[in-house]
Amino acid sequence: MITLVKRPTPSQFWAYATPLLAVFATMVAGGILFAALGKDPIAAIKVIFYDPLFGPNAAYFRGQLLVKAGPLILIASGLAVGFRAGIWNIGAEGQYIMGALAGASVALAAYPAESHLLFPAMVVAGALGGWLWGMIPALLKTAFGTSEILVSLMLVYVAQNFLAYAAFGPLKNPDGYGFPGSRNLQQYPSAHNPELIAGTGMHWGVVAAFLAVIATYVLMQRHIAGFRIRTAGEAPRAARFAGVVPAKLVMFCLGLSGAFAGLAGLFEVAGPNGQITDSFNAGYGFTAIIVAFLGRLNAVGILLAGLLMALTYIGGDMAQLMLGLPTAAIQVFQGMLLFFLLGFDLLTHYRLRLGRARA
Amino acid sequence: MTGALLKIEGLTKAYPGVVANDGVGFQVAPGEVHALLGENGAGKSTLVKMIYGLVKPDAGTMQFQGAPYTPPEPRAARAAGVAMVFQHFSLFEALRVAENVALGMENPPPMRALSTRIHEISTAYGLPLDPARTVGDLSAGERQRVEIIRCLLQDPKLLIMDEPTSVLTPQEVEILFGTLRKLAAEGTAILYISHKLEEIRSLCDSATILRGGKVVASCTPRENSARELAELMVGGEFAATDRAGRKLGAKIFEVAHLNLAPMSQFGPALKDVSFTLAAGEVLGIGGVAGNGQEELLSTLSGESPSAPGTVSLHGQDIADLGPNDRRRLGLLAAPEERLGHAAVPNLSLTENAILTGTVRRPLTRNGFLNMGAAKRFAEEIISGFDVRTPGPHVAARALSGGNLQKFVIGREVLQAPEVLVVNQPTWGVDAAAAASIRQSLLDLASKGAAVIVISQDLDELMEISDRFCALNEGRLSAPRPTEGLSMEEIGLMLGGAHGMQEAAR
């Protein structure tokens, strides 16, 4: 019989060891899954984790790593701040879309004028678009006590419809021979978010992601505001006693995570993706939730988790191509990562003790 | 002593890092009221949990009515004739008395028959209780009666009571003691746990004193003074509080016609609460918890807003200011609930020092935390208030209740408040720690601060406060000077015991 004994103080060792253990367990369980599908498990794991970094075409894939990790890290950094406070923004995907739409609209309105001010204006618009979309659940929660989980999630579907409308309607490329989708911003120099160093995948969105990591680290670990956010998540009454106004906290957290998601959307539409289409969003907003938890809601952890998640994306694509693994298997594999992480998390707060059952 | 009802020998229970009970032995005769005395952490709770079958001993033997007794679970203990009334009630507020009693029984009889039994037992033992009332409407004293009657229905041979009087008014205590004496006279043994030494001296026939998990003494409480008992518990000299040498200054704090809506379904509302406070004064607010104490504290601390003009400090209306603005002006508070309100359980002591300390202490620079200064502040609290902990990096929840309470009180006192509001400052704190907390509040007052002490412990309030008033069902009685106030008068201020008249009949 195994009994759980609560630790008096959370274990520092396990707080860092559990993510590694979770990755390892995911490899083992994933290997079994792939074997059951009739694939060589060792080869599949190698394709997912090893080849993108060190395989024959690694030079190309390494660039892709930052392209994929950038938005994940940027969004997850914002989400983690709210999650620490117990404010659950599940709708980053919608805020990501609205940020992209707002930023692209600014660019397309200015087309074809060239100016150094255009890109900064797009960045501001992108952040504002995401912020506004995040403020809807915030205001509804503070005014009427609605659940931000449901409202933010449902607004994702509203945003998707906005996206489709924009792609087929007002933002459609007039020179596009009737195809849906906007002009490609990659061909509009003032609006383009280019690769800054050739072959690295580094664009302004990746820079923003790194800045977000630093900013949220400083906020949460060094600043009184972050301290209050953590307090609010741990003990809401103690937070009020310490002077936290719950309504302000809700607006700050949803606003911040919305703005970060909006920025990620803007950098994506102006950079790697290039245009607004009805299938512009690729699920970064949802995957970022996994990244935030995988990274222990901690800025540095999120940086590493974002890179790891990007790796499984790229490796997963390769595994589909090279080994013919079904998409669903890859998604199960990614889901397992979160599953094992949350499971092993128990070890941080509890000690396992093997012993006789109490009569 | 021949024919012991309960005989315990060499009982030992160890938890990781601490031996809670180490070779404990004592015996209880039928009809004996036996006190278990000891500081917090002395091992009283573990001991009674073993007797009640909640915890299994590592070593040692127990005999009940001459037969070996090893209850694997509380059900077996109840079947053997052992009943227990816990310090914290396990009642459903939305259910009626009879329904609550039925929930605690193995084979509850039909509701009508049960109601009749409850009525019979409650009148026979002088504990009037209407089986049809909803528990949410009952006072703390009446709720305790539900628990006691639930036990008495099992016709126990041994009744264990864990700190039963902490929630009762003096009159209710008298009623309870009458019941317990009657039970003892009928041959029921009672194992009585309490911190209140005077009560033990008046009620108990014998006492076993625990310290650090070991039996350090057995005595007859009537033959020892309360001070001697306290010294046996603490194992050393015991400093009495010193209230001398205080002068009252000008009026600095005023609450006028304060009303507040209930914070929870069965919570009380505050109704027209008014009082004033002078510099250097200690105002004691008595009354059973749940009569508006939490509500009053949260209004004074700034957590709950109140109407303009209801709270003023130095003549300035502060009713619409939040907790931090009030701290800036010198009004500090220490709530009752330590874990989750006064302190964050999972954060370290250093971080808990930051929780309320940033306004009056330079723990931040332009909003950025100065962790070095925070750590020094936490260390200052730890050394100044004798908080027993390995260091400021320890999580608040790892501290015992008494040590965390010392930390919380110390954190506020060291910020040099002009007005300090504390709710139940020594609740669940051992005698030595309680004395040092009271002394620190008096020292604070002698430096010119005004102190409001909300407490259920009337002895404590009599000991430290200059004026006394009572909070009952959200109403505050007019404060009266403590000196010369008799227990009867205090009882009347507390609104009397519920059901007093019937009981006296």
How would you summarize the topology of this molecule?
The complex is a heterodimer of chains A (359) and B (505).
Chain A: E1 2-6, H1 12-36, H2 41-54, H3 58-84, H4 92-110, H5 118-144, H6 148-168, H7 204-222, H8 224-234, H9 236-241, H10 246-270, H11 284-294, H12 299-323, H13 327-344, H14 346-349, E2 350-354
Antiparallel strand pairs in A: 1-2
Chain B: E1 6-15, E2 18-28, E3 33-37, H1 44-51, E4 59-64, E5 67-68, H2 74-80, E6 82-85, H3 97-103, H4 111-124, H5 140-152, E7 158-162, H6 170-185, E8 189-193, H7 197-203, E9 206-211, E10 214-219, H8 226-234, E11 251-260, E12 270-278, E13 282-286, H9 293-301, E14 311-313, E15 316-317, H10 323-329, E16 331-334, H11 349-357, E17 364-365, E18 368-369, H12 371-384, H13 401-413, E19 419-423, H14 431-446, E20 450-454, H15 458-464, E21 467-472, E22 475-476, E23 480-481, H16 487-493, H17 500-504
Parallel strand pairs in B: 3-8, 3-9, 6-7, 7-8, 13-20, 13-21, 16-19, 19-20
Antiparallel strand pairs in B: 1-2, 1-4, 4-5, 9-10, 11-12, 11-14, 14-15, 17-18, 21-22, 21-23
Helix pairs in contact in B: 3-5, 11-12, 11-13, 12-13, 13-14
Membrane topology (chain B): Peripheral membrane protein
Protein name (chain B): Nucleoside ABC transporter ATP-binding protein
Pfam families (chain B): ABC_tran
